[in-house]
Amino acid sequence: SSPHLVQVRERIRINGQPISKELFSKYFWLVYNRLEETKDPAHASMPAYFRFLTIMAFHVFLQEKVDLAVVEVGIGGAYDCTNIIRAPVVCGVSSLGIDHTSILGDTMEKIAWQKGGIFKPGVPAFTVVQPERPLAVLRDRAQELECPLYLCPDLDAFEGDCLALELGLAGAHQRSNAALALQLARTWLQRRGCEGLRELKEVPPVTEVVGRPVPLAPAFQPTDAMIRGLRDTEWLGRTQVLHHGPVTWYLDGAHTTSSIQACVRWFRQAAFNQDKPHDGSEVRVLLFNATGDRDTAALLKLLVPCHFDYAVFCPNFTEVSVASNA
């Protein structure tokens, strides 16, 4: 997965834990030296940072003999360096947003085309509810690549009458991610022929949307392990609340308009449960940083409803032109 929050080892995890410094160092130099020895003398260049780490991650997973590797694309999908797996078990496309427009294109349809590039012939793929036109692009890509594509039902469909699924990750937007995770996990378990799958009884759909461009995947009763997995999932730096003495930190890595909107909904719910005291004992400070060619003014505009008392901006350069700084 990428990016990392504190240490690069977070990108390559086994059983949820970043690999050790010793293991990282061992495999880094092994891959580096092998590439150095075999590079083309005419075009003597090494893979760029992300490509190198991708090659290294695949090498780690093969050498450590993992049962299952979950690989997140870097940018896009079609031309991403992670997209060399010819026959994955299953593919998933989460909620699409406008990002990396200089590489992926400036519309949701162009971005959907890139994301659909991970589909493979005969390999089931799942996606979540998307706007109509990007979803149609995903459907066309799937047909072109002869990939069976399904739409995940809402998480409510997995909850049945009495089972309320508890998520370790805060925010309403995580419900569609959880539904996608359940479908991906189930596909892998079926492929493995795991026992206990008779527990995964299909639940009839509550509603059927007429004219749906992509067939709806059946919901099912999650296993105890799945229920625990959703509940115990944590991802540091994403909708994370940290209490540190008199200061409470609300951390998130949102950097697109859609993810900032989700972040605002989460923050207001998490921080506005209590009415703001009028004695001045509570002060709201926004710490904001953005990298790359993001439209910071558009992102900041979405944070206005949070009613911050102060804002602190931390640029990525020691010298910043004030004139061009949104």
TrEMBL record:
Catalytic activity of the protein: (6S)-5,6,7,8-tetrahydrofolyl-(gamma-L-Glu)(n) + L-glutamate + ATP = (6S)-5,6,7,8-tetrahydrofolyl-(gamma-L-Glu)(n+1) + ADP + phosphate + H(+)
GO cellular component, one term: cytosol
Pathway: Cofactor biosynthesis; tetrahydrofolylpolyglutamate biosynthesis
Entry-linked PROSITE patterns: FOLYLPOLYGLU_SYNT_2
Entry's family note: Belongs to the folylpolyglutamate synthase family.
Source organism of the structure: Jacana jacana (Wattled jacana)
Protein's UniProt name: tetrahydrofolate synthase
Broad EC category: ligase
Source superkingdom: Eukaryota
GO molecular function annotation: ATP binding; metal ion binding; tetrahydrofolylpolyglutamate synthase activity
GO BP: one-carbon metabolic process
Keywords carried by this UniProt record: ATP-binding, Ligase, Magnesium, Metal-binding, Nucleotide-binding, One-carbon metabolism
Enzyme Commission number(s) from the entry: 6.3.2.17
